Fold NtaA/DmoA family FMN-dependent monooxygenase.
Amino acid sequence: MTRKQIHLAAHFPGVNNTTVWSDPEAGSHIEFSSFVKLAQTAERAKFDFFFLAEGLRLREQNGQIYDLDVVGRPDTFTVLSALAAVTDRLGLAGTINSTFNEPFEVARQFASLDHLSAGRAAWNVVTSWDAFTGENFRRGGFLPQDQRYERAETFLRTAWELFDSWRGDEIAADTGSGVFLRDTRAGAFSHHDRHFDIEGRFPVPRSPQGRPVIIQAGDSDEGREFAAATADAIFSRYGTLEAGQAFYADVKGRLAKYGRTPEQLVILPAATFVLGDTDADAHERAHLVRRQQVSAQTAIKFLEQVWNNDLSGHDPDGPLPSTDPVVDGSTIAPGRASVRMYRDPLATAREWRQLAEAKNLSTRDLIIEVTGRQTFIGSPSTVAAAIDGLVQADASDGFILVPHVTPGGLDEFADKVVPLLQERGSFRTDYTGPTLRDHLGLA
């Protein structure tokens, strides 16, 4: 029986709660050498693609820059274009916002990247939900969720019109005398709706993939439907067997109504990992990593995001605050996803108090408990078996790996886990085609 082939991608962490800044091996998240190191490791291991998230505004809390995160994020297209020159086969995926950009500009940038990389570009299409981020842009403000996805889908389809405005039979015609004439239709576009009113001529000829690979990350019903209609790959937050299978079946089950087959959408949960010589070693190391990820200061900052109040004087090694969260329509941490995640702070506080009491947890221990754990922990053989098992059981098609140390945190996985997946016959030993669509098995 033919085994499903696992898809793997490498996420450059940037701004997130996974990174262990205090690790002696941690490096810059801005210097180009860090991007090169992680990308070349991923390519050495035959990963499908390298992935960059996006940070459109520095995070703030209590009216100040959030100093427990990286300060700064280079431009996505600049980084990926530079990486195209130092990699040969690795896909290059960038997160570009559809709420504050325009189709012509984004399509031109992705078409250019696809040419520069010989067909390795991917676009993670996202929307923005908060006015805080919108203040950096001309349009400002934000859109309700239904309008965000409506604009995003219109944005994407408009970009497709631009990508498709150059067709092979329109580029040039031989007059018979050795003189080549450009077809007057090449690059012509005209799109008019309530979101975009544009027409003209697209300046970038059709790229090696025709269109970049489209990635989507929404977990809402609107996000899943958007992915089923338009995406080539979708991120998933579900890394366990039951939850993963439910998400997998739901999203793949939506494809038929759009004339698509299950093979035309790749489902990729984000995943962290901690390896050790033995499973016991790995679990001991994972415990240390979690305490490094959630320092005493980080625990208080996270607590403030839910309590919506200055808790700088609170003891992280003591119990949760006896006071309730402030619910007055304001927010102490504008633009933070955790504010959205805990929509009912009073209910969250009750649940956390019950959990802390039941397990005798301090504030810091409680935050460690509720803010996530490593997805894969164990010896290389244990981790390889777990990844392969989830993919073969249709809980995912692969994983986007997020190392906790940048830029060298992927090396151990590449050297110790990938060979075991290859021995199982579940992962490629070499690339079979030049483009990212080839790697992902997409038309």
Summary: The mean pLDDT is 89. Residues 145-163 form the longest helix (19 residues). Residues 295-370 form one domain. The first strand starts at residue 7 and ends at 12.
